[in-house]
UniProtKB/TrEMBL annotation:
Entry's transmembrane regions: 21-47, 300-326
Protein family per UniProt: Belongs to the ERGIC family.
Organism, as annotated: Seminavis robusta
GO cellular component term of the entry, any: membrane
Cellular compartment(s): Membrane
The protein's name: Reticulum-Golgi intermediate compartment protein 3
PANTHER family from the UniProt entry: ENDOPLASMIC RETICULUM-GOLGI INTERMEDIATE COMPARTMENT PROTEIN, ENDOPLASMIC RETICULUM-GOLGI INTERMEDIATE COMPARTMENT PROTEIN 3
Cited InterPro entries: Erv (IPR045888), Erv_C (IPR012936), Erv_N (IPR039542)
Assigned keywords, A-Z: Membrane, Transmembrane, Transmembrane helix
Endoplasmic reticulum vesicle transporter N-terminal domain mapped to chain residues: 4-100
Domain Endoplasmic reticulum vesicle transporter C-terminal: 136-320
Membrane topology qualifier: Multi-pass membrane protein
């Protein structure tokens, strides 16, 4: 036992040699407050976790470019909902690559439940209406809603007026090109039956990245006003950035979007022979780089070490500072004596 006493690193001061003071109590309260604040801060940082970003080459997926590829592995979910307030559903067509709703090939490749064309609800019309329009005046609109699984390769889909409707509109368009005075600018944008203005409720590719601040293809009203009564083509180019979102032990394959759009006027469609029809065309491609967004916590042993270091460090530092002040005051008092 005597040998163990010599190894005691925590020597005790006899109680009769100890003295307590109000200043010592204040210093103790300061030390406890500082240790508590640092302790709680460390716990909060640990529970919140840390976020790390890194870039990696995305995994390549080889998918045959055929109509049957939609039934094979290596696909991404495409969801969209778009309302055209001025056009009836019979005047619109949907096409995805070489599959078309009007030709009946879309249902064969992707299933009958993949696409729905219906009359818009009142709430959908209110979102898609232009300034000054009334719900009664736009009850003949159309909402196109789709849910398809598309191959993980670059592609394009379009919602446009049918070729028959385009043929009916061509005469009016050519007439306007010959004589602008025959098409009053103030009336046609609101009254033309060929107006392809639309409201994008959402266009989603796969699982959206949950940390994105905004969705570039959700809640967008595209109003077309020109002397041709709202006939034009909105082209949207989408770059899909594969993003692995890992929150602690759960990982998800998500996608971030980079979007650029432009409006092609009807004069360009006719003069340059653009093969696309008025409406909306969305082309998409995948970037070769993938983003890894990882949210994790520090190692539990590192966390416990930090807590012990905080508490011990605060009291050791305060003890050293207190001892320095006490000895300094004693030395000054001795010299004054």
């Amino acid at each position: 036992m005597a040998g163990l006493r010599r190894l005691d690193a925590f020597q005790k001061v006899r109680r009769d040699a100890q003295s307590k003071s109000a200043l010592g109590g204040i210093i103790t309260l300061v030390a406890i407050s500082a240790a508590s604040i640092l302790f709680l801060s460390e716990v909060y940082i640990y529970l919140r976790g840390v976020t790390r970003h890194s870039l990696h080459l995305s995994e390549s997926t080889h998918v045959p470019l055929t109509r049957q590829s939609a039934k094979m592995p290596g696909k991404i979910r495409l969801q969209f909902k778009i309302t055209f307030p001025h056009l009836t559903c019979r005047k619109l067509d949907f096409a995805l690559d070489d599959a078309s709703h009007g030709a009946g090939t879309l249902e064969k490749a992707y299933g009958r439940q993949s696409l729905t064309l219906r009359t818009p609800t009142l709430s959908e019309l209110k979102l898609a209406m232009e300034t000054g329009a009334t719900p009664a005046a736009t009850r003949h609109g159309c909402t196109i809603q789709g849910d398809l699984k598309i191959p993980l390769v670059a592609g394009e889909f379009a919602i446009s007026i049918t070729r028959r409707t385009w043929a009916e509109a061509t005469s009016t368009l050519l007439l306007g090109l010959l004589d602008d005075r025959q098409l009053p600018d103030a009336s046609l944008p609101q009254k033309s039956e060929f107006n392809v203005s639309h409201y994008i409720h959402y266009i989603r590719f796969g699982t959206p990245f949950p940390k994105a601040k905004d969705a570039p293809l959700e809640g967008r009203l595209h109003r077309i006003q020109n002397k041709m009564g709202g006939i034009a083509l909105q082209q949207i180019h989408v770059k899909l950035i594969p993003t692995i979102y890992q929150r602690f032990l759960i990982a998800k394959n998500t996608y971030q979007l980079s979007v650029v759009d432009q409006t092609v006027q009807p004069e360009t469609l006719v003069a340059k022979g653009v093969p696309l029809l008025p409406g909306i065309a969305v082309s998409y491609d995948f970037t070769p780089l993938a983003v890894h967004h990882v949210e994790s916590r520090e190692n539990i042993f590192v966390f416990l070490s930090s807590l012990v270091s905080i508490v011990g460090g605060v009291f050791v530092t305060v003890g050293m500072a207190t001892g320095l002040l006490v000895h300094s005051a004693a030395a000054v008092a001795k010299k004054l004596d």
